[in-house]
């Protein structure tokens, strides 16, 4: 990466304007933001308590010594454009875009997607800023395992298709995520995604399978709990 490029690169922070300014300078629309913020907090709490995807990831992170605390590691903020969330590796915080997330199912998916990044961050010494392959791999895993490409989500986007389609969906979403936060060409991003695709697509940790539905995720969570119980007896 050359010098000029490095100066221009903002790692996607332009999408999260609240990350740059003081939290308390909300201005005259403060009241409506408070309502958005409150709703976001309530949906977040519900996701943490009821989503089997989120529960499994939170449990796995706790086991890896990276316990996630709601107040410390999640932040409901206003974001630009249509982004739903992000993982800020410099603060280990998950950003939830309170102005763009309006439904519980959407919140559950965003929390899961970002928790996968947080899990990778905790687990794998990810070099988000310098190693492009690490970023690509985590985006592939997040798209594959979060339900972003599950059948009902895809149906609602009018993308009818079969199994092959899941892979295409994962590839496409990983590409879009990378292009949103890095100043690289589409070709460059495609090259890296394709290089790491097979190994990262087949890495299902900590789920042990691709959870294609909430039911799958429930089974994965049950297995995870049993695994834990087994180790506790050793
Ligand atoms: Zn992502």
TrEMBL record:
Q: GO molecular function of the protein, one example?
A: metalloendopeptidase activity
Q: Which GO terms describe its biological process?
A: mitochondrial protein processing; mitochondrial proton-transporting ATP synthase complex assembly
Q: Which Gene Ontology cellular component terms are annotated?
A: mitochondrion
Protease found in the keyword field: yes
What keywords tag this UniProt record? Hydrolase, Metal-binding, Metalloprotease, Protease
Q: What is its EC number?
A: 3.4.24.-
Which family does the entry's similarity section mention? Belongs to the peptidase M76 family.
Q: What is this protein called?
A: Mitochondrial inner membrane protease ATP23
Can you name the source organism?
Pygocentrus nattereri (Red-bellied piranha)
Q: Name the gene.
A: ATP23
